[in-house]
């Protein structure tokens, strides 16, 4: 049998996993909302980062596991799994918990990639741990796995104009200038992820956490407070913090757990 063919290699890898139960050495999760109508939104930058990473590493999201689209294979010399939860943002933790449990992945081997309004477009920040801030996807993960001791990579999308609704801002496409900056940030993020996989979070942080973040936004974000901390408008009868990221409107069906 010619095992040099990629399709046969993937099939062999799946059979080996089924027999041994061996999970990946790194689990990289990008956050976003599923569906073509949300694909270009600022809130889906985590998905887009993983798509770029998969493209550069020649991996394909050809599998489904734990409410997620999954790609598995070699990247930066390690066995890596990429996952895009399909639960909608606010329930991302359900998928992440099941992925970690099913593969036996410890929190230190998890990397969550997501958008952040407290960083300008194109800026990235990698942290080894800390609170979830005001991002509902991260809150869900922390609540479900019961830990904040996992690495995360934040991708800047900028903050909304004064007086704007944060939910409307993150659930909208960026401007052309913002999109260009974000694309440059995604390329940088993929390089940072490669170093994280190869040498760990400290090396990646030292190499890619360059440049100051204006005023005290970095501190407030790390402490779990958004730079946009005023109370926001009522959405479908529920008041939300302006820093909260909302899943699509409440009348959008959410897949069953």
Written account of the structure:
By secondary structure, the chain is of the alpha/beta class. It has helices spanning 6-20, 45-57, 92-103, 136-145, 166-170, 176-199, 201-208, 217-222; strands at 26-30, 63-65, 68-75, 78-85, 110-116, 124-127, 152-156, 231-235, 238-241. The protein contains eight helices and nine strands. The strands form two sheets. It has a seven-stranded mixed sheet, sandwiched between helices. Strands 8-9 form a two-stranded antiparallel sheet. The longest helix has 24 residues, at 176-199. The N and C termini lie far apart (40 Å). Mean pLDDT is 82; it is low at 212-257.
Short description:
This protein is 36% helix and 19% strand. With 257 residues, it is α/β, with parallel strands linked by helices. It has a single domain, classed as 3-Layer(aba) Sandwich (Rossmann fold).
Total of DSSP H or I helical runs spanning 4+ residues: 8
Mean pLDDT level: 82
The H/E string reads: HEHEEEHEEHEHHHHEE
Q: Which residue ranges are poorly predicted, with pLDDT under 50 across at least 5 consecutive positions? A: 212-257
Which percent range fits the helix content? Answer: 25-40%
Supply the CATH superfamily name: Peptidyl-tRNA hydrolase
CATH class label: Alpha Beta
Q: Radius of gyration, rounded?
A: 18 Å
């Amino acid at each position: 049998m010619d095992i040099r063919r990629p399709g046969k290699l993937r099939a062999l890898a799946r059979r080996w996993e089924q027999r041994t139960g061996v999970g990946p050495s790194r689990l990289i999760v990008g956050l976003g909302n599923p569906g073509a109508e949300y694909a270009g939104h600022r809130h889906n930058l985590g998905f887009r980062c993983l798509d770029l990473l998969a493209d550069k590493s020649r991996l394909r999201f050809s599998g489904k596991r734990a409410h997620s689209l999954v790609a598995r294979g070699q990247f930066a010399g390690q066995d890596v799994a990429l996952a895009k939860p399909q639960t909608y943002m606010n329930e991302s933790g359900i998928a992440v918990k099941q992925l970690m449990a099913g593969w036996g992945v410890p929190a230190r081997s998890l990397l969550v990639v997501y958008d952040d309004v407290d960083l300008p477009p194109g800026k990235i920040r990698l942290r080894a741990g800390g609170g979830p801030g005001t991002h509902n996807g991260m809150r869900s993960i922390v609540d479900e796995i019961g830990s904040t001791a996992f690495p995360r990579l934040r991708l800047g999308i900028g903050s909304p104009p004064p007086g704007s609704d944060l939910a409307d801002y993150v659930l909208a496409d960026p401007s052309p200038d913002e999109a260009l900056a974000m694309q440059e940030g995604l390329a940088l993020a993929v390089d940072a992820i490669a170093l994280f996989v190869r040498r760990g979070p400290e090396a990646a942080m030292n190499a890619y956490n360059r440049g100051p973040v204006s005023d005290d936004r970095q501190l407030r974000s790390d402490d779990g407070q958004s730079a946009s901390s005023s109370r926001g408008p009522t959405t479908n009868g529920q008041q939300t913090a302006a820093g909260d990221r909302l899943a699509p409107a409440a009348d959008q069906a959410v897949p069953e757990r």
